[in-house]
Each structure stands twice: as structure tokens, then as C-alpha cells.
Amino acid sequence: MAFELSTEILEYIDKLIPRYPEKRSAIMMILHAIQKEKGFLSLEAQEWVAEKLELTPIQVREVVTFYPFYREKPIGKRHIRVCRTLSCALNGSYAVCDRFKEAFDTELDEISPDGRVTVEFAECLASCGTAPVVMVDDKLYENLNDEQVEAICNKIKEETPANPKAGNTDVS
Amino acid sequence: MISVPKQSEVHPSERRIILKNADNPDYDVSIDCYERHGGYEVMKQAFSSRKPEELCQEVLDSEVRGRGGAGFPAGMKWKFLDRKSGKPIYLICNADESEPGTFKDRQIMHKDPHQLIEGMMISAYAIQAAEAFIYIREEMPLGAQILEEAIAEARAKGYVGDNILGSDYSCDLIVHRGAAAYICGEETGLIESLEGKRAYPRIKPPYFPAALGLYMCPTIVNNVETLCNVKHIAEMGGKEYAKIGRPGNTGTRIWCLSGHVKNPGYYELENGKFTYGDLIYKIGGGLREGRTLQAVIPGGSSAKVWRAGERFSGKLRSGEAFDWAIDDVPLDFDGPMAAGSMSGSGAVIVVDDSVDIVEVLANINAFYAHESCGQCTPCREGSLWMKKITTRMVNGGAREEDADLLASIGDQIAGRTICAHGEACAWPTQSFVAKFRDKFTEKAKEDPEKASKRPFRLV
């Protein structure tokens, strides 16, 4: 099946590109938009971006593989990023990460068996004064303790139906 | 309108200029609120009655030093702009706040975005930028959203875009999101990233951004806090601004305090009027009950560590002799440098005696190995090598020769790379080994079983 994007994203991309003095500059913002819609950046998506920006596919791939927040495989419906860097680690972020893994019976960087989450470590979420911190999708949770972690896990389970077959992707 | 929770109590020692409104309960991120508090008045005054070169001179007179980490005088950076080339000039706000321990720019963008926009547009007018960008790290999606909405408001009111405030000057402002690479905080890496490539830093010289920056055009890259300061410099005048703080260390600075202290947070203090002891104990509330100080990292995790109890002596640039304990080191740009480290991004990380110092270095090494862009062999290979050694050490495989090996690898990285990431990854290892050699030696004698069962696990 040919690679397709929603009309909304196509319009966003068409407005975005002319704002930059050189169209190649739009690549990171376009990749973010596609990843948000598709869940990850497939080879087809990368080739589509290359064609759109008149680049070679390898020029797009170089970008996708360099930046940690771009991904080439699906993740769970919800994305849990636990800050593992110094101030958070000093305040218990490794234990926080273990609690998330236990709550969803999952391993780091894997989609949980119920399809609900992927738990990852992140390198400094820039909120060291409120350590330990976690980002769930785009939302930051600060000053975490055991009860708060449990509450976040329960909220995710409540809001996100289990679906062991699919992660955050439209590719089934 | 996006609502952001207020977080920090204002400490009586603070002199809030940049964060003056940020944590007021009745203050929000809307342009109406900003204007009610006098927002955009300085910009209006600048555009109506001041020439760009006058504003550049004010920034030079202010002696304001960049708040991103290097501490280079901002006015001097602006002066280096190549204006003869005839190429368009670009302004970039470096909002890639990635140095572990640093979280001040987040507060500004989340709580007072229009202050940044006003500071940027005054700066853009002063340097006559053709276009301006805010490069924000992807870990701050809320910040990007707040800024996008604030820019739309500012554009609708004529503060951004074509013929700003009815003048013949036009400048658009674009929010550009990174994708979680620390190296994008390095200005030439950021420029490469903004051009749509891997963030491989460029060699300086010749690629000083002021001459050969974005699209090989003259470019100024300034930190969020620095650009906000420009608004206040334009308002009070450079020489008046320079009276805040002390000579060579002018203005206020937002210090980020984290780690093992009772009151971690961000505190805006007049430069040079306080000491590290004031920040950690009087303002930050000191250590947790029953704990003693083990180490202080004075300027972000890449800064050289200080060991509790050590003293620093020598002569300042003024010729004045000093003999300081950690608590006596002035909280400014020059104090930590005189004490063998740096203030960097203003991030002070406190480590008490509850943790294993080798684990602390292992955590830092894991970060810098992950964040090496991979362009230079000493940094790419050396950072990973150091990480592997310190990880092995905390997992129970420490060897007697490890301290020497780590020091040697650090020595072979520092000064041998295109950008300062070489130093950023080497300095922690070099300084931790030098200051805590006994702890590294003890590690080799530790029971491996004990190491693997440690409840506080950093790697």
C-alpha cells in the first residue's frame, strides 16, 4: 500500500516548508509530524520525506538515525520516558523505572505484553530541580514518589485499553 | 491559553529580573497579561527611537556574558558579525537546554514566553537579522506549544513578521524542535541540525557562526536567558545594567540547584554577591538530615567536580590573593573558574555521602557516551570506553589499574576534538579520578557480590 498521510498533516507540511530559507531545514519538523501520526518512521515515510524535500533517502535516514527521539519501530500506545540522568538518578529514578516495568510486566524499550506502554530511559528531561521526573507522552510528571507512580500507572490502564497486537501505529 | 503550575517560592535573597513575573500567582502566558505588566514597551521604544547600532553598543556596555555555558560576552559576539558579506544575518535562540542539572530556560519559556520574544525581536532588530529561530529541545513539547501560541499572538499584534510596529523592518520568528541530541546545544551543531542534518559540530575557525553560520551566513546564537537580558539592557541602558552584579560578572543569573539538597530549585541572584555556600545552605536549605557533603558539581555535569573539604588558593585576575573552601567560592563566572572548574550553565549539583562516587561518575559517563555525536574518534571511542570501565567498576569488576586507565583516556580526549564535547566528557572523569582516587582504589577491593546487590543503582 502506498504511503499516505492525513490531509491535515499534508497541509501543515506545505505551509511549513516555505517558512524556512532552505527547504531541507523543514526535515525535523516534518519527521515529528509524521511520527506523531504514524507512531514511527518507516522506510516508506523516510522516502516520502526525501521526495518532498528533494533529498536523497540516505540524507533523511542520516537524520532519523542520529536523533534519539525519532524511531523506526512501533512503540506502545503510551510512551513512558524516565529520566535517568544524574539529578534524577540521585533521587531514585532507577527505582521509578523499575516500578513502571513491574506495573506493565515489561522490559525496557519493549512494547508491554498488553500493548499499552513502552518504557524507556531518557537522557535528562531538564527538570532536575523536581527530580525524579517522567514524561508520559508529552506530559511531564515531577517530584515522583511511589504513590504517584502507582497513580500514573492506574490512570494509563484506565485510559488505554489493552491491545496486545498493536502499538502506537496505524500499521497492523 | 496554556496554564503552567507555579513552582518556586521566591527566596528573599533573590533579585528577580528575568523571573520577575514568572511565578506570580496572577501572571499567565497571554500577551494581554504581558502587556498589562509593561510588556513590549521596551521594544516599542527601541523601534521608534533607537538605531540598531546603539542597541548593539548597549549590549556591549552591559558586559553581559552568555548564560548558555561558555560565558562569552554577548556584545562582543554581536560585534564579530560579518556585516560586509552582504549575506542575510540570522538570529538563533539556543533553547536546547540539555546540560544535566540545568532547568532554568524551561521556566522562562513555560512561564514568560513573551519576554523571550520581546528580547529576541529587540536583538533581531539590533543585529538586523533577516529571520530568527528558537531551537527548542524535544523534551519540552509544552514549551514549544506555548511559544508557538505566543508568537502567533505577537504576530497578530505586529511585534513579529512584516513591517514590525509600522517600521520598514521585517523579521519572522520560527520555533524549531530538536529531537533529543545534547550536541545540539553546541552552537555549530545546532546550526547543522537547523539546516536539516546530523548535528555534527563544525571546526572553529573558520566556522565561527558570526561569520559562517546558518546557511554559511552570519549568525548569532544566544541562550534563552541571555536574549531575555537584552530586553532589560535596552530598558535600563548598558552601563546601568553593568552596575548589577560585579565587574566582569554583570547582571543577575538564574542558578539551578539540584541533587541532595532540601530545597532544590531555580534562584535568580545578583552575580558575585553570593557564594556556593550561600546557595547550597542558606538558600537551598542545606543537605538532608543526617547526611554530610561528599561533592559539588558547580556548573552542570560536565564541570570539574569539587570534593568536600578541599580548598582553592591562588590569585585572581585583579591580582588579589584568595584561599577558599567550597562554601567561599563566589557564585559568578570567575569564582568557579579560579577554583579549577566553571559555572557553565549555572547548574549546581550536590552529592551527599549516601551514594558511591564511582556510581556518580558512571552515571555521568553513560550520559556523555550516549550523547557523543560520533564525529571525532577520541570522543566517540573514548567516551564509550570510559563508560564501559565505570559501568564495569560499579557492577563488581573494578581493577586496581582502572583509575590510571580512566585518567589516561580522559587525557587523550580533552583538547583533541572538534567541539567542547571532548572536554565535557573528559573533565568529569579526569576530576573525579583526581579528587577521589582513594574511592576508585577501594572499589577494586570491593566484594563483587556486594556491588551487584546495592539498592541505590546508578547504572
Automatic annotation (TrEMBL), chain A:
Family matches, as Gene3D superfamilies: Glutaredoxin (3.40.30.10), NADH-quinone oxidoreductase subunit E (1.10.10.1590)
Record keywords: 2Fe-2S, Iron, Iron-sulfur, Metal-binding
GO molecular function, one term: metal ion binding
Free-text comment on the cofactor: Binds 1 [2Fe-2S] cluster.
Entry binding sites for [2Fe-2S] cluster: 83, 88, 124, 128
SUPFAM superfamilies for this protein: Thioredoxin-like (SSF52833)
One Pfam family it belongs to: 2Fe-2S_thioredx
Cofactor section: [2Fe-2S] cluster
Matching NCBIfam families: nuoE_fam (TIGR01958)
Family statement: Belongs to the complex I 24 kDa subunit family.
Protein's recorded name: NAD(P)H-dependent oxidoreductase subunit E
Lineage: Bacteria, Pseudomonadati, Verrucomicrobiota, Opitutia, Puniceicoccales
UniProtKB/TrEMBL annotation, chain B:
Keywords assigned by UniProt, alphabetized: 4Fe-4S, Iron, Iron-sulfur, Metal-binding
Protein name: NADH-quinone oxidoreductase subunit NuoF
Alphabetical list of PANTHER family matching this protein: NADH-QUINONE OXIDOREDUCTASE SUBUNIT F
Domain of life: Bacteria
GO molecular function annotation: 4 iron, 4 sulfur cluster binding; FMN binding; metal ion binding; NADH dehydrogenase (ubiquinone) activity
InterPro entries reported in the protein's UniProt record: NADH-UbQ_OxRdtase_51kDa_CS (IPR001949), Nuo51_FMN-bd (IPR011538), Nuo51_FMN-bd_sf (IPR037225), Nuop51_4Fe4S-bd (IPR019575), Nuop51_4Fe4S-bd_sf (IPR037207), SLBB_dom (IPR054765)
Source organism (scientific name): Oceanipulchritudo coccoides
PROSITE patterns assigned to the protein according to its UniProt record, in alphabetical order: COMPLEX1_51K_2
NCBIfam families registered for this protein in UniProt: PRK13596.1
UniProt-listed Gene3D superfamilies: 3.10.20.600, 6.10.250.1450, NADH-ubiquinone oxidoreductase 51kDa subunit, NADH-ubiquinone oxidoreductase 51kDa subunit, iron-sulphur binding domain
Residue ranges annotated for the NADH-ubiquinone oxidoreductase 51kDa subunit iron-sulphur binding domain, each copy included: 358-403
Protein family (similarity comment): Belongs to the complex I 51 kDa subunit family.
